[in-house]
Structures are given as structure tokens and as C-alpha cells.
């Protein structure tokens, strides 16, 4: 009680021991438990909260997605341009991609370089095709790709007409095999090679009409790469005349000259006439 007499201090040994036990017990009961707020103030967070924070940090770790290969990503647009015969635009797009992409030694660089070489061949820009050929990666797991394309480019450069058509067929056959390294590229090659062959034949017809006053169907078929009967029909469709008695085809000369139905560079150059002369000696040998 507040007004009662004060409790006398312990005197005996037993009283002193009892007082010590009572003090320890009261101290244990009255000691406060550290709250979360107090733990935060002292810088010692509770163990449970620390574990929760660790789980939260790990759950919010951001994994960056893999960036798509720029050469692989270009194939759909290249296919669209090929289907539309927009080869000048195709060349410009590929040149920009190759210039702005850091992947000179990437094997996937062939995915854009091979269509670039073929596009230059379609446009009869042989020097640029050779330059593009040199930019193909050298570390390909399947070197036959560059060997087959290189054989075609060499035949075109030398104006070895029979070999041009043979090498073109070789490339189509190879691109269509199940073990071709890249199926989408193989499809693109199979679409571009026939376009090249068609434009090459048209240019050759134009050169023959300007380089010959007449030619036999047998000789013309070697230049065109088709059987004689097909060559004769193609020639007459282009207003050539055929004389069965002499077995000769004669081109029709107009004031404006022969027209070419392809989007390429003009074929009437001195070098092409020289190539025809060289080819004649090869074909007649």
C-alpha cells in the first residue's frame, strides 16, 4: 500500500536468497520483446523479414531476352522483294544491313550475302557480284555453298554459256536437298536462280540479235541452254525469222533495236561483244 510502513530489508540468509530469486524473475517477465519497428530502428531486421526481402529481390531479377540475329531477321523482307522482282531495293537493303551489323565473321552473314550475289547477277552487275562474293564468311561449316555459288559466278564472268546453265542447275539441286544447311535460304535460292536464268537468256538473245546477222538453231541453243525446238520457238516469238532451207535464224532489226524485258543494265557493250566472239570459239571447238 502507498501509506503502509516500508518493507524491512532482508536480513537473514534465506530472505536474501528469496529476494534475489524474486528480482531475477521480475526482470525476466518485464523485459520487452523487440518489435519490428524497434528492430528497424536498430538496423537489425527480424530474421523472417530478411528472408522475405531476399525472396522478393530474387523474384524481381530481370532476364534479358536474346536478341534476334539481324541476318536471320532479314530473310522475310528479302523473300518479299524477290517475289516482287524489286532487286534494286533488295540490294540497297542488304547493303545497309551488312554495313550496320557487327557480324563480319558470323556464319549467318551468308544468309544475306548469297541473295546479294544473286541479285547482282540478275542485274548483270558482275563486278559487284564478285565483290559481294568476297564478303562471304570463311568459317562456314558447309563450304560447298560458296563453292557452288563461286562456280556459277565464274561461269558467268567468263561468259561460258553452257556452264552457266549447268552451274545454275547444280545450285538449285543442292539448295533443294534435305541436308542443305539452311532451308529458308535454300527456298530463296530456288526462287532466285530461275529468275537469273531467265534474265540471262533474255540478255543473250539481245546480244545475239545485235552480234549476228543470222545464226543456226544449233549454235543458238548452246547460247540459250535449251533444246533446238525451244530455241526456235523463242526466237520466232521475238520476231526472228527461221529459214528451214538454210536452217538459220535471222533477228529482226528495228530502228530502236531489240527490247529487253528485264530490269538490268544495258547489254550492248564492247566487252559483251568480245565475250560473244570468245564464246563462239569455245562452242565451235
Automatic annotation (TrEMBL):
A Pfam family of this chain: CSN8_PSD8_EIF3K
Region named Disordered: 1-68
Residue spans of biased composition, Polar residues class: 24-34, 45-64
Residue span, CSN8/PSMD8/EIF3K domain: 117-251
InterPro entries according to UniProt: CSN8_PSD8_EIF3K
Compositional bias per record (Pro residues), positions renumbered to this chain: 1-11
Top-level lineage group: Eukaryota
UniProt name for this protein: CSN8/PSMD8/EIF3K domain-containing protein
Organism: Moniliophthora roreri (Frosty pod rot fungus)
Amino acid at each position: 500500500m502507498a501509506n503502509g510502513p516500508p518493507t524491512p530489508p532482508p536480513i537473514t540468509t534465506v530472505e536474501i536468497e528469496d529476494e534475489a530469486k524474486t528480482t531475477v524473475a521480475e526482470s525476466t517477465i518485464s523485459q520487452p520483446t523487440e518489435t519490428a519497428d524497434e528492430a528497424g530502428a536498430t538496423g537489425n531486421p527480424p530474421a523472417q523479414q530478411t528472408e522475405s526481402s531476399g525472396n522478393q529481390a530474387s523474384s524481381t531479377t530481370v532476364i534479358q531476352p536474346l536478341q534476334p540475329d539481324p541476318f536471320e531477321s532479314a530473310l522475310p523482307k528479302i523473300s518479299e522483294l524477290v517475289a516482287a522482282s524489286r532487286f534494286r531495293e533488295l540490294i540497297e537493303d542488304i547493303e545497309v544491313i551488312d554495313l550496320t551489323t557487327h557480324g563480319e565473321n558470323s556464319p549467318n552473314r551468308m544468309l544475306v550475302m548469297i541473295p546479294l550475289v544473286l541479285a547482282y547477277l540478275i542485274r548483270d552487275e558482275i563486278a559487284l557480284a564478285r565483290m559481294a562474293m568476297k564478303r562471304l564468311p570463311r568459317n562456314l561449316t558447309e563450304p560447298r555453298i560458296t563453292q557452288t555459288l563461286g562456280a556459277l559466278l565464274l561461269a558467268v564472268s567468263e561468259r561460258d554459256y553452257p556452264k552457266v546453265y549447268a552451274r545454275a542447275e547444280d545450285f538449285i539441286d543442292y539448295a533443294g536437298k534435305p541436308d542443305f544447311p539452311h532451308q529458308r535460304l535454300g527456298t530463296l535460292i530456288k526462287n532466285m536462280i530461275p529468275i537469273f536464268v531467265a534474265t540471262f537468256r533474255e540478255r543473250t538473245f539481245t546480244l545475239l540479235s545485235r552480234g549476228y546477222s543470222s545464226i543456226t538453231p544449233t549454235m543458238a541453243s548452246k547460247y540459250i541452254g535449251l533444246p533446238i525446238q525451244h530455241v526456235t520457238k523463242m526466237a520466232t516469238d521475238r520476231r526472228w525469222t527461221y529459214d528451214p532451207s538454210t536452217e538459220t535464224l535471222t533477228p529482226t532489226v528495228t530502228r530502236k533495236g531489240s527490247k529487253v524485258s528485264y530490269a538490268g543494265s544495258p547489254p550492248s557493250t564492247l566487252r559483251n561483244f568480245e565475250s560473244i566472239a570468245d564464246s563462239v570459239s569455245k562452242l565451235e571447238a
